[in-house]
Amino acid sequence: MKYMETTLRDIVGSENNVYLRSGNSYRESLRDGRRVWFEGEYLEDITSHPKFSGTVDMICRYFDAHQSGPLADILTEKRENGTVSSAAYMIPRNTEDLRRRGQVINAVVDMTHGTMGRGPDFMPTMLLGMYGSRELYIKSNPELGSNVERYYEWARQNNPIMTLAFVDPQGDRTLPAEEREYLRVVDRTESGIVVSGAKVVATLSPFAEEIIVHTLYRKDLEKDNAISCAIPVNTKGVTIVCREGWLTPGKEIEHPLSSRVDEIDAMIVFDRVFVPYERVFYVGDTEIPKYYSTTALWGHWHVMARITRRYEFIAGAASLIPKVIGTEKIPQVRDSVAETLRCLETCRAFLRAAEENYGIMGGVAHADDNIITTGRMYSVEQYPKMMNILREISGQGLIMRFPDKAFDDESFGTVLKKAINAQNYSGREKTRIFNYVWDLCSDSFASRLEMFEVQNAQSVPKNRQLWFDNYSKEELTALEEKVCRIVDVPTPSF
């Protein structure tokens, strides 16, 4: 196929119809000349940088786990045609398939200890949404729209790490669109388009191999701003400008979460970047962005499944803390712990109900959108409350944490051990538990996680508005009729 031969490089190829890659192949792929700016310098090799290497190592483990170990059967899928590939790309047809795919989400969350909002299996889910709604793209432009299915199949066979670039920079809203740094088409040729501008919150982009560009609808959206395409990270003119790093390498005991993985959010600057038409999914169509929530159905389900799994870590910590400090019989503490469990079970119920009431689009099963959206709103509304519960029930435990070396000091180590020990844990063990809780709810790493959860799929007020706007008018009318019949008045027609 010309498209595959000329525009998409094979990363792994196929051996005996097995489309899996190793961690080493991923690591080597990052040494591709990409431009990554981080804390004042351009990084020649992110794999060796102390604030990036932990995340690189985690993704390498993710790929290696496909081929051996206890997760191999969960992370891989054998299709009817005999090919074996990552289960992140499986096409669900029913509830059972959605839950099978959900096992992959859970496995990745567990591998990252719940600290990644955009794990390596997220973007395959977003691609699945594009594939399921491919008729939207084909209707806009049959030639460009057909690229969606081709790209999905290429990604399934090659398993690239991808980042999603769809958010516009938060700039001066009083300026007209043409004066802001929105990504736009600045030139066209017979073989492709040239784009310039910026996209932000491109999480995981320093570690990615492909950038998937989307456009969110806005009232001042112009045709040249309406773009969806796939761009290799090392394309000429692409620069990844990273936010401050919050990884604390070498402090695995004091910071058991923030010392391991930082997925890094970034602004991607495009300076006259050429995109061949074979990598463009649509351009110049201001209607398709209105349906972003449709193409993101599968991504929103992934978000709900992931945060539900993360709540298991939160509820586990909440249950453990009182047993460490001896407050487990205090009624107020018990109620706080119970609240974290109620949150977890409610999220699980949303997820189960959405998967059971699945719909079909483009031959692909998707979780019920209304239930998932309601569940996502609930989950992010609860997140700050859950963080506050962890802080409240911890008491001084979160503040009085000491470096591990302090317990070995000859002058005060013995006193320290006795002073802060617990009924079932030594002072050192107690401190390690609270180090975990600190990373989970209180430091800058935790604050970023909380902000990401609350803001990553638009703000809660915006989601509430969209949810209400999209609520079934037939259902709403039926609810109104119940009341109107009781008081014998007509149902409103406005």
Structure description:
By secondary structure, this protein is α+β, with helices and mostly antiparallel strands. It folds into two domains: 2-291, Butyryl-CoA Dehydrogenase, subunit A, domain 2; 296-472, Butyryl-CoA Dehydrogenase, subunit A, domain 3, CATH 1.20.140. Helix content is 46%, strand content 14%. A six-stranded mixed beta sheet has the order 3-2-11-12-8-7, with no helix packed on it. Strands 6-9-10-13 form a four-stranded mixed beta sheet, with no helix packed on it. Helix 11 packs parallel to helix 13. It is globular. 43% of the residues are buried. FAD binds at residues 170-173, 203. One of its GO terms (molecular function) is oxidoreductase activity, acting on the CH-CH group of donors. Residues 295-480 form the HpaB/PvcC/4-BUDH C-terminal domain. Residues 23-281 form the HpaB/PvcC/4-BUDH N-terminal domain. This is 4-hydroxyphenylacetate 3-monooxygenase.
- Uncertain stretches: 1-6
In CATH, the architecture of the largest domain is Beta Barrel
Radius of gyration: 24 Å
Structural class: alpha+beta
Order of strands across the main sheet = 3-2-11-12-8-7
Strand content: 5-15%
Round the mean pLDDT to the nearest integer and report it. Answer: 94
Proportion in helices: 40-55%
Main sheet record: 6 strands, mixed
Number of domains: 2
CATH topology (fold) name of the largest domain: Butyryl-CoA Dehydrogenase, subunit A, domain 2
Fourth CATH level, the homologous superfamily of the largest domain: Butyryl-CoA Dehydrogenase, subunit A, domain 2
Span of the ends, CA to CA:
54 Å
Number of helices: 18
Compute the number of strand runs: 15
CATH class membership of the largest domain: Mainly Beta
**What general form does the structure show?**
globular
